[in-house]
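Entry: Phage terminase small subunit P27 family
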Amino acid sequence: MAGNQNSGRHAKPAIVHLLNGNPSKKNREVLLHEQSQPLAPVEAPPMPDWLSAEAQAEWERIVPDLEMLGLISRLDRQAMVHYCEAAAEYRFWTLKMREFSQGQSLRGDVQTYRSGAQDLSVWRKLRNDAERRANEAGSRFGLSPLARRSLKAVPPQGELFPNEQKRIADKYF
């Protein structure tokens, strides 16, 4: 049976060709041009009106910087919503855990049941889940050192905003 469009190997990205010394002998200028083009137009997505106040604050803090670095487009709205909501929940559960542990007999994050069994407190479990979700969603935008290695930021266009890109890059990289 003959193959279809999904048969065979996927095409390698231009950066892979360039990093491997271009063994396929493709035109170097075409590869460099392809590498420098963003996959989607750089533009901040509109912030949803249904986000919590904490998530809105995180959105307003991070989206302008991602747009300046060329790491976000209108297509990324849902991924950014996931990150902002998870970051807001992480903050909420951290504060709730701190508030709850002051008046309780929690030793650290261990909860002891009447039977004597011990487990992580529910607050810590909820906080850990929010942290995991924030880290996963944030890595899509290069919000961790390891994730930034695989992202390519669009080079700044001249000096339209003197030192603005440097300030943002110093803040996150």
